[in-house]
Amino acid sequence: MSLEAKPVDGPDCGRCHKCLSGKIAFVALGAIEIPVTATRMILCPACGCKRCPKASDCQLDCTDSNDPGQPGSVYGVPREPNP
Fold first, then answer.
1. How are the residues of the chain apportioned to helix, strand and coil, as percentages rounded to the nearest 5?
2. 29-68 burial by CB neighbour count: b if 16+ within 10 A, else e?
């Protein structure tokens, strides 16, 4: 599988992890900043999967897959449990 960046309709889709990165949803207790990505589930607009690379970066292709460890996804390879 190869990753191919595609242009979107504007500089910022406002729905993927990349476009929402650094944006603050609100400030709690006057000093604790809560990032937007911590307040909502970020899903691919095409397939609805959270691990799809398009949910991480709107310029990547949709894989229509929720498999962990996909290239381009913010969800990496799952960790092995400690014995």
1. 15, 10, 75
2. eeeeeeebbeeeebbbeeeebebbbbbbbbbbbebeebee
End-to-end C-alpha distance for the chain, whole angstroms: 33
Q: Where are the chain's structural domains?
A: 12-73
pTM given for the model: 0.74
The continuous run of DSSP H or E covering 39 comes out as none
- Residue written as token pair 């290239």: 71
What digits encode the pLDDT tens for the residues 12-39? Answer: 788 899 999 888 887 777 788 888 888 8
Enter the tokens of residue 74: 């913010």
Residue length, the chain?
83
Residue given tokens 């400690």 in the structure block: 82
